[in-house]
Design a protein that fits this description.
Chain B: InterPro entries: DUF294_put_nucleoTrafse_sb-bd, GlnD_Uridyltrans_N. Chain B: This is DUF294 nucleotidyltransferase-like domain-containing protein. Chain B: It comes from Fictibacillus terranigra. The structure holds two protein chains of two kinds. Chain A contains 17 helices and no strands. In chain A, helix 3 crosses helix 4, helix 9 crosses helix 10 and helix 9 runs parallel beside helix 11. Chain B has 14 helices and six strands. Chain B has a four-stranded mixed beta sheet with strand order 3-2-1-4, sandwiched between helices. In chain B, helix 8 packs across helix 10. Chain B is globular. Chain B starts with 16 loop residues before the first helix and ends in an 11-residue tail after the last helix. The chains are: A mainly alpha, B alpha+beta. Chains A and B meet through helix 8 of A and loops of B.
């Protein structure tokens, strides 16, 4: 067997495994979000994860993949609809030595994650119909544009923006959409008092939240290390190392910050700290040294705990802190390479320049900042226009009665925990 | 049956002669309520004329004592009217908590109980009378301006209203079942003060209870652990924790954060050494007199106490125009920076006092569990 054939086999296998790991993160989000929300919405919150991935799959196959990676201009791809095209059509992905179907599957997994993040801002009060419409538009008109700018041969990629696995492309996008949604939807009933002081609406199952966090942590090995889409030089191992170090530092940073700021070592805060650290290292995992990964992870974990408290005090009801964990950490992670990108790793990846700390000047920091502002601005504008229009046309939010009775029963007709919430079922069973 | 009505020695300010006279003549709940509402100007006058915090609290609490006693006396008369002359028996309506420790602020909720003694044959009838009297007393106190206790520590609750023998049975149950809840009930029962009726009933019960408590070193040890395990809400860098959620979000809970842990530390020290004083100030002084704490410590303990009292009183006066007069949550951002710094210093001292309390008292090494 030729060496090139063996390499293609190895790379393909690796990308397949990575894609499965990242798609498996949907299970992590289902557990994380369901555990972090109330029992009366648990079936809805978990179940919509399947709906979300299903919508993303069809829409990304039909149009999103072409707009992201298809041949086009600096702003969007204009070919590759329904994945059709010749070798030139998806030239932006030609660096990966695997079949197009696997490239699609792997990239689809990323869209699925980005969309899952966006739903955090909709949790416990949005209509099911909004998920269909916004999910489709996000997959076709929002995510692919930023994806194209950075990874599909667009203007940010040409400037040398360093976003190895998507702190901006995947996480910041989802988080900005979540923020716009949560602002337009307004807080959940009972979240704030008349004087705007916040109330605690605890998640119904912390064990689910923790399990969700662990599944996401594992999935991130596919997310970051899998983004090499190749095995030849074993570089994916190094990326797995920086990813893991950051996550560990994020857990410790968050739980210590929680203890220092509130007196209690909050478990959901620790889980969010892990995720914030993973989000932050997603851009930087291939560009920074191991020690820097620890710094980035610890800072992201600690800082996003503070921002989650801050935004809540400012009257923003972000039920699972999606904007802090994915948005703030996404910004931190993207900017961090402008400071910490190491010359040897920049040379190895061949993207951008070394960071400020290594004498690279402000050039890379500037590019990273422009990337963050550009991406966040575009997502915010398009998400706002779409959601505002939906609000006016069909309404984003379920009725107060439906919200109070819970989305499980009002949108789906059955409870996630029937024995707990519907005494009649227990009586009948007895 | 008539009980002597002992008028406390109310020392009023020269600026408020009118209030004392009106209090002495007050014969209705409306009048008592009106006098209650006039406490604030009296205290403000005392503050303006430079009276010490100890003096102001004495004045304030003497006023509360008279108001409470008058209201309960009216309730007794009303219950007598309903039931006719009460059958043979004795009772004692008593207060607990800050009232018993003589450290009530302007606004304070009720914490009270009832003990009674009867000839066995009359028990059922007298129990009904005691219940009616307690219910009326609690209602009258609420009308005068003492809101109902949210924890239902009131004589109208049968948990806090018993025949003398039943009280002993109840306390024995607590003593022999040292759950956290029972420890808390016992901590409450360590602060009691007669309000109306026969003081001897309460005195005997308290004497017996403290004696029984000292027969159970493990319970005393658990009480000390309960008190000293309360975390003072401040981190190692001196940052004060505020409430994260709820209507007091962003504010500091003065009562649960520092006042209660401090008061309870002093209380448990006092009990551990077998002292009998009831007010926090007297407890500190008694600890010093008997040589359990040094003079320097005494001065430190009193300084902490006075600072907390001052903070509580100022805050309490500021609540006059609100609907939430029992609130003890401070907006640190609205306090003067020097007062916040002082609060932090005091909180560090309370942490140290808690640590000292953990080490003080009799050794429990040889004790057996209950």
């Amino acid at each position: 067997m030729k060496e090139s054939t063996v390499m293609m086999f190895m790379d393909s296998l690796w990308v397949m495994v990575a894609a499965i790991l990242v798609i498996g993160m949907q299970a992590g989000f289902a557990l994380l979000e369901a555990g972090s929300t109330r029992m009366k919405n648990s079936g809805h919150v978990a179940g919509k994860q399947i709906l979300s991935f299903a919508i993303a799959t069809i829409a990304f196959w039909a149009a999103g993949f072409g707009i992201t990676f298809g041949e086009g201009n600096s702003f969007f791809g204009a070919s590759g609809w329904l994945m059709h095209g010749d070798s030139k059509t998806f030239d932006s992905l030609s660096w990966a030595n695997v079949p197009l179907s696997l490239k699609f599957l792997f990239q689809l997994a990323f869209v699925g994650v980005s969309l899952a993040i966006a739903w955090g801002g909709f949790a416990e009060r949005a209509k099911l119909s909004v998920y269909f419409i916004f999910g489709t538009v996000f997959t076709v008109l929002i995510y692919p544009i930023i994806g194209h700018w950075v990874w599909g041969g667009g203007w940010l990629g040409k400037m040398g923006m360093q976003d190895f696995a998507g702190s901006t492309v995947v996480h910041l996008q989802g988080a900005i959409a979540a923020l716009v949604a949560t602002l337009l939807l307004g807080p959940r009933i009972g979240k704030f008092n008349k004087d705007r002081t916040p109330n605690l609406i605890p998640g119904h199952n912390q064990v689910y939240t923790v399990l969700g966090g662990i599944i996401l942590w594992i999935g991130w090995f596919g997310f970051n290390a899998g983004s090499t889409m190749g095995t030849a030089d074993g570089f994916f191992g190094y990326i797995a190392l920086t990813t893991n170090l950051a996550a560990a530092a994020g857990a410790i940073g968050a739980i210590l910050t929680s203890k220092l700021l509130t007196g209690k070592a909050d478990i959901p805060a620790m889980v969010n700290g892990v995720l914030a650290a993973l989000v932050a290292i997603t851009a930087a995992c291939a560009f920074v040294e191991a020690w820097a990964a620890i710094v980035i992870g610890a800072f992201a974990g600690a800082f996003t705990f503070w921002t989650s408290v801050y935004f809540e005090r400012k009257g923003i009801d972000d039920p699972i802190y999606a904007f802090s964990v994915h948005g703030i950490a996404g910004i931190l992670g993207t900017i961090s390479t402008g400071i910490f990108a190491s010359p040897r790793l920049v040379e190895q990846t061949g993207v951008g320049k070394a960071g400020l700390l290594y004498g690279g000047g402000f050039q890379q920091l500037f590019v990273q900042t422009i990337g963050v502002i550009g991406a966040a601005g575009y997502v915010a504008i398009v998400s706002f226009i779409l959601l505002f229009a939906l609000k006016k046309l069909i309404g984003l939010r379920v009725t107060p009665e439906q919200e109070i009775s819970g989305l499980d029963i009002s949108e789906h007709g059955s409870y996630g925990y029937p024995e707990h919430l519907d005494p009649a079922i227990t009586q009948k069973a007895n | 049956m008539q009980y002597p009505f002992d008028e406390p020695n109310v020392q009023t300010s020269k600026k408020e002669p009118d209030l004392q006279e009106r209090l002495a003549k007050a014969g209705s709940l409306e009048e008592l309520r009106e006098i209650h509402m006039r406490i604030i100007p009296m205290i403000q006058g005392l503050s303006a004329s430079g009276h010490s915090i100890e003096y102001r609290y004495n004045m304030l609490n003497n006023m509360h004592d008279v108001l409470t006693r008058r209201a309960v006396s009216l309730a007794y008369d009303a219950a007598k009217k309903t039931f006719g002359e009460p059958p043979g028996g004795k009772l004692c309506f008593f207060s607990m908590g800050s009232s018993a420790r003589h450290e009530q602020t302007v606004w304070t909720d009720q914490d009270n109980g009832l003990i009674y003694q009867t000839v066995r044959a009359d028990e059922v009838e007298y129990r009904a009378f005691a219940e009616e009297f307690s219910r009326t007393a609690v209602q009258y106190l609420a009308e005068v301006g003492y809101p109902l206790c949210q924890g239902n520590v009131m004589a109208s609750n049968c948990r806090w209203r018993h025949h003398e023998e039943d009280w002993r049975e109840q306390l024995l149950f607590y003593l022999n079942n040292g759950s956290e809840e029972n420890l808390k009930y016992m901590m409450i029962m360590l602060d009691t003060k007669q309000v109306y009726g026969v003081p001897a009933l309460l005195f005997r019960l308290r004497k017996w209870f403290v004696h029984e408590l000292h027969q159970r070193p493990m319970i005393l040890k658990k009480m000390r652990e309960l008190v000293t395990s309360h975390e003072i809400p401040m981190n190692m860098f001196g940052m004060i924790f505020t409430e994260r959620w709820g209507k007091y979000s962003g504010r500091f809970d003065l009562k649960q954060g520092v006042f209660a842990p401090y008061i309870n530390s002093i209380k448990i020290l006092s009990v551990l050494y077998g002292n009998e004083a009831q007010s926090t100030r007297e407890r500190i002084l008694e600890l010093n007199e008997k040589g359990f704490i040094t003079l320097t410590e005494t001065e430190q303990y009193l300084a902490v106490y006075d600072f907390l009292l001052e903070l509580r009183l100022k805050h309490s006066i500021g609540l006059a125009e609100t609907d939430d007069r029992l609130d003890y949550h401070l907006r640190l951002s609205e306090m003067e920076p020097k007062n916040v710094q002082e609060l932090k210093r005091i909180m560090k001292q309370i942490k140290a006092i808690q640590k000292q309390t953990k080490k003080r008292g009799p050794s429990f090494e040889q004790s057996t569990g209950i």
